[in-house]
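Quick note —
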Amino acid sequence: MKISKIDHLCLVVRDLEAAKKTYQNDLGLTPDVEYEAPQESIKVARYYIGEVAVELMEPTSPDSEVGRFIEHKGEGLFLISYKVDSVDDALKELKDKGVPLIDEKPRHLFGNRYAFIHHPGKLYGALTEILDGDFDINAKS
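Predicted structure written out below.
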């Protein structure tokens, strides 16, 4: 599996509006994109910083993956997403190596195909994601 770059980092927050104000006031940043992903139970503000996006992510349900994470570990780094040529090929390679996978098939969101490959404890506290495609807010999920 060849990782071409870090695509994005996700920080979970309890209050997205307050976090956006902090990013604006302290760092001078405004979101490039804001969206809600009901299938993942999240509201997101995405900032592009060079080639890497930073997402502030608020859970919309306490029972979601993000909701459970924030309740257990608090606010902070949640996910690192790596860009690969093909999620299908990468999943096959990882499975052949015996790497425990969360997703055995890609998920789809805004033009991306992605899969979670490690639980946070396995890779030092951050959920690990691989993806192919390019983020497009107008693409069908």
